[in-house]
Amino acid sequence: MHTASGDLTTDIRVRRWRRTRSVFAILTLAGAVFCVAGAIGNLPTWTWITGFAATLISGALLRLAWDKHREALFAEAPTATGTVVDVLESRDPDRGSTYQLLVDAELANGATIHRRINIGGDSDPLRWIRTLIRFRHRTDDPDDLDDAFFGRMERAAID
Question: Distance (Å, rounded) from C-alpha 46 to C-alpha 127?
Fold first, then answer.
């Protein structure tokens, strides 16, 4: 099913990326099992090396499919421009600190929505405070904090 411009409809893209994500999740798990079985069993060395390589490759593709699925979910969502009011830090001893932006945006109908946007690691996260950013959202629920998408196009709008 194609639209007039030749693009796949959003629903089809969402389903395809969800299916792709599921396939790579299964392949990642199978690769990990293959790797462990090869490492602890009486199998040739190439067995666990192959399992390890399969886990790394399918894991990277899983991450890509996960991001593309999320992007497809918000493809037709309206955009809002909001102000970053706070930055939350999550500390992880293995991965370091990651950050979330708390954003308030006023919609055209006068309602104010609050959203939380993950930005990962950042060398200067406090620079975001009082910055205007554009993001996509699917609901007008004022307190649906996780209903936000801040992708490449949205990031490019502030640079």
Answer: 48
Exposed, middle or buried: residue 98 (CB in 10 Å: 0-12, 13-18, 19+)? middle
Task: Please write the tens of the pLDDT for every residue from 110-152.
Answer: 999 999 998 887 778 888 899 999 999 999 999 999 898 887 7
Cα distance between residue 55 and residue 71, in whole Å: 24
Domain ranges (residues) in the chain: 10-73, 79-156
For residues 83-99, average pLDDT = 87
User: Whole-prediction pTM value?
Assistant: 0.69
What tokens does 79 get? 């955009």
User: CA 48, CA 76: separation in Å to the nearest integer?
Assistant: 43
> For residue 99, what are its two tokens?
């950050």
CA atoms 80, 86, 90, 96: torsion sign: positive
